[in-house]
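2024-03-11 09:14:02 INFO worker-7 job=invfold-0412 stage=load source=structure_tokens
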């Protein structure tokens, strides 16, 4: 379907108020109800980025060998000690020739023990340590890694991801035949508690104890732990990674990922959002491909959507996605700050400004908990099919549909619950009647059940 039939006509409130504030640097003071203002956050990101300078960044590299580097593994880290050490240890045991791989570890202004632990680290692979004393942000820190990379294949790996011995080799194998392939193993990730943190709740501790009982030595370490804790307490050691015994306390997690992998094949055929597979916890691609796309957008300073935004750009460039179960990683669970939700909503707003397409706007349905992922997928699929087969009849409907999505996005800043969506969108009584008529016509076609149900939900909100 061409863009002609998917209207990107902006809601006046959306385009006028939000973009006007952005151009004024967020000084207009206008918001849609919360304390979290997209425009102010965007302005702050830009100002913070401009204040960074090269003197805030220090790089330490091992003596570079004459071996040709084929793979560059980029690991950003901010306050992930000692989880980041376990990740680095796991990369020492690769079946791939470690002389042909480099690890670029970027310490993004950590205040924990990372600097002390890493400065004398001497692994068997080429190791480049970059330390920024001022926070670079999630996008810029990865761009710094890309710019420093010598390998033709880049793997992004989160600092708290433990890998298996075949991790690098299996990533590399996928890239032997296609230059525009993006391979993710993040959707098959498992989880484990490698450390106890003071912030862990009683519920988490009970789950942790149950998992620790799977391995006698790890359980004994848990029993030796003295509470209350003032800092993190490791439950595993390097030998557990070398011998693979850490996997005994790992478990399947992340049902959101499983909802995708259980419904779609490795190539994500039938999935309307293949670019969601761009998850920087465990993903690989050719360096040439990501540089052609312009790398990460550095306006995404805080948490969330900087990966999907780049993934979406790559998808529109023609990149193909593969979801692999051959490159499993193990996510070391850790506390997550309460402010992450607000940061993610702010970055989602930025995402929709940069890509005001129905494919991106519709993500608000799941964020607002109006649909689950699979229903959202079907709503988009049916919407596009409707406009492909009936472009003239439903052109007006498509414009109103975009307005509804924009309103749901705006309401996210106020509250996750969505009431009276049509009222918030400024629908007149005439507009409401027209929408109800459209819904009945769509229902009569008997090919769009998910789209019809969503429209009923909006009308009755």
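2024-03-11 09:14:09 INFO worker-7 stage=emit residues=461
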């Amino acid at each position: 379907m061409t863009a002609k039939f998917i209207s990107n006509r902006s809601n006046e409130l959306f385009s006028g108020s939000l973009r006007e504030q952005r151009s004024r640097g967020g000084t207009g003071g206008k918001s849609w109800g919360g304390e979290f203002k997209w425009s102010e956050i965007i302005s702050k990101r830009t100002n913070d980025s401009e204040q960074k300078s090269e003197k805030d960044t220090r790089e330490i590299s091992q003596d570079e060998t004459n071996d040709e580097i084929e793979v560059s593994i980029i690991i950003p880290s901010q306050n992930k000690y000692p989880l980041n050490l376990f990740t680095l240890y796991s990369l020492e045991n690769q079946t791939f020739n470690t002389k042909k791989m480099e690890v670029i570890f970027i310490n993004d202004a950590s205040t924990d023990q990372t600097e002390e632990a890493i400065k004398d680290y001497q692994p068997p692979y080429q190791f480049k340590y970059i330390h920024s004393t001022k926070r670079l942000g999630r996008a810029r820190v990865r761009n710094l890694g890309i710019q420093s990379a010598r390998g033709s294949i880049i793997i992004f790996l989160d600092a708290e991801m433990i890998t298996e011995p075949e991790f690098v080799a299996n990533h590399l194998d996928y890239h032997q035949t296609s230059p525009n392939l993006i391979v993710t193993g993040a959707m098959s990730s498992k989880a484990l508690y490698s450390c106890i943190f003071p912030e862990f709740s009683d519920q988490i501790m009970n789950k942790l104890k149950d998992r620790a009982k799977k391995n006698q030595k790890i359980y004994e370490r848990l029993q030796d732990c003295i509470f209350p804790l003032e800092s993190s307490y490791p439950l595993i050691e390097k030998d557990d990674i070398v011998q693979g015994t850490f996997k005994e306390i790992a478990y399947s997690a992340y049902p959101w990922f499983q909802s995708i992998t259980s419904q779609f094949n490795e190539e994500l055929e039938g999935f309307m959002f293949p670019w969601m597979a761009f998850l920087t916890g465990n993903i690989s691609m050719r360096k040439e491909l990501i540089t052609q796309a312009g790398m990460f957008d550095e306006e995404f300073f805080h948490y969330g959507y900087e990966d999907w935004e780049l993934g979406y750009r790559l998808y529109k460039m023609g990149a193909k996605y593969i979801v692999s179960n051959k490159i499993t990683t193990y996510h070391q669970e850790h506390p997550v700050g309460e402010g992450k939700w607000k940061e993610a909503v702010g970055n989602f707003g930025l995402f929709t400004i940069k890509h005001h397409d129905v494919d991106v706007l519709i993500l608000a349905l799941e964020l607002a908990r109006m649909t689950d992922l699979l229903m959202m997928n079907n709503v988009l699929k049916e919407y596009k099919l409707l406009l492909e087969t009936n472009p003239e009849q439903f052109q007006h409907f498509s414009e109103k549909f975009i307005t509804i999505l924009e309103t749901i996005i705006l309401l996210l800043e106020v509250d996750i619950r969505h009431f009276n969506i049509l009222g918030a969108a400024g629908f007149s009584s005439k507009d409401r009647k027209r929408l109800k008529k459209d819904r009945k016509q769509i229902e009569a076609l008997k090919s769009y059940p998910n789209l019809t149900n969503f429209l009923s939900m909006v009308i009755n909100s």
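2024-03-11 09:14:09 INFO worker-7 stage=report msg="The mean pLDDT is 88."
2024-03-11 09:14:10 INFO worker-7 job finished
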